[in-house]
Every structure is written in C-alpha cells, then in structure tokens.
Amino acid sequence: MTSTFSWTPDWAYTGQHKPRVFATQFGDGYVQRLINGINTDLRTWNLSFSVRTLVEINAIEAFLVSMQGATAFYFPLAGLSGQALVICPQWTPPSPAGPGNYTMTATFNEVVA
Predict the structure, then answer these.
(1) How remote is the C-alpha of 105 from its chain's centroid?
(2) How far is residue 106's CA from residue 94's CA, in Å, rounded to a whole number?
C-alpha cells in the first residue's frame, strides 16, 4: 500500500515541467528534436514548510527519511484535483525560524509506477 504525504506545504510552492527531448545539431544550424522515451514530461515541485512546530517539522522529516529518497508516495495537489505519485530525493534538515517555529524545504519528483 502506498503512503500519502499528509502535510500541506506553504501555498507559494513552485512546480516545473521539463520534458525529456533528444536533440541533434546539424552543421547548417538545423536541429532535429525527438521525444526521449515514454512519460517524458514528469513534474517537479520545490516545497517549503515554514512556521511549523518542532513536532510537525520532525514528523515531516521522519516521513521523508522513512521513504529513503526511493519509495514513492502520493502528494495531494493543493488547490488542484488529484494527486501525484512522487519521490523526495532531497530535503533540507529542519532549521529554527523564530521562537518555537521551524522551517525546511523539499523537492518532490513525479514518478511512474
């Protein structure tokens, strides 16, 4: 059974599309481009978790540690319908952001199972 990430990131998170394209440059300036493989437009999200309690920020980090950067989990898309299957290959450790407040960031990469 696949886990679901149950914490809401800060609303100002960004995502991006970066389709995989194979390009060949010819001597006359002509470039030939081809789609590289299947599922070539998987998304990436850069997320922040700001002004969180130590308990919440530790729970977020414990979840990400348990996924080990390789186990996929569901990420509900805030403000959009649906969810994405993702892995989290990198995150920052929690850091103090004021009295009783902590922050961290994470990158989620969409995957195909």
Answers:
(1) 10
(2) 10
Taking only the tens of pLDDT, the chain with its 113 residues reads 899 999 999 987 777 888 778 889 998 889 988 888 788 778 999 999 999 999 999 999 999 999 999 999 999 987 777 899 999 999 999 999 889 999 999 999 999 98
Domain regions of the chain by residue span:
14-110
d(CA 93, CA 81) in angstroms, rounded, equals 30
Task: Tell me how far apart the alpha carbons of residues 107 and 14 are, in angstroms, rounded to a whole number.
Answer: 10
- Name the token pair of 101: 């407040």
Determine if the pTM surpasses 0.90. no
DSSP conformation class of 58: H
